[in-house]
Amino acid sequence: MKARVSQTARDELQCADLTSMERFQAMVLGWYADNARQFVWRTPNPDPFVVLVSETMLQQTQTHRVQQKLSLFLQQFPDFAALAAADNASIIRAWQGMGYNNRALRLRDCARTVLQVHNGVLPADAQALGALPGIGPYTVSAVLSFAFHHDVPVLDVNIRRLYSRVFQRLNTVIDLLSESALQLIARDVFPRGRSSEWHQACMDIAAQFCTARSPRCLLCPVCGSCRSAYQLADAAPVHIQEPSFRGQPNRIWRGRIVELLRGLEPGQELSHDDLRTVLSLRDTLDDAAWIGNLLSALERDGLIRNGPTGICLQS
Question: pTM for the whole thing?
Answer without folding.
Answer: 0.87
